């Protein structure tokens, strides 16, 4: 299913992977914070929403590299296009805190 060169497939994967990745990363940090893995002082570590969003956007490197190795240029373009959409939304949402 993912082994074809399609712009639409690249866009869909590029939009879905950060969306799901954000939820997974957020759940992971909530579980680590709630567990007894860390001592009392380190348990207060919190990641801001913008940091988790950047990590989720960076997950698009995985399908990009896969399509690069397969030489699927249209799928790569789709992933890059979706990534640029997320970066634009990220900058719009957090621009007050950035500048």
Q: How would you describe this structure to a colleague?
A:
This protein has one domain. The chain is flat. The mean pLDDT is 88. Helices cover 75% and strands 0% of the residues. It is built from four helices and no strands. The chain has helices spanning 7-34, 49-58, 61-70, 73-98.
Helix vs. strand class: mainly alpha
Number of DSSP helical runs = 4
The coarse silhouette is: flat
How much strand content do the residues show?
Answer: under 5%
Largest sheet descriptor: none
**What number of structural domains do the residues give?**
1
Order of helices and strands: HHHH
- N- to C-terminal distance: 42 Å
Whole-angstrom Rg = 16 Å
> What integer is the average pLDDT?
88
How many DSSP E strands? 0
Low-confidence stretches: none
Question: Helix amount, in percent?
Answer: over 70%
Quick structural summary:
With 99 residues, this protein is mostly helical.
Question: What keyword list fits this structure?
Answer:
99 residues; 0% strand; mainly alpha; flat
List the SSEs and their pairings.
Elements lengths: L6 H28 L14 H10 L2 H10 L2 H26 L1
Helix pairs in contact: 1-2, 1-4, 2-4, 3-4
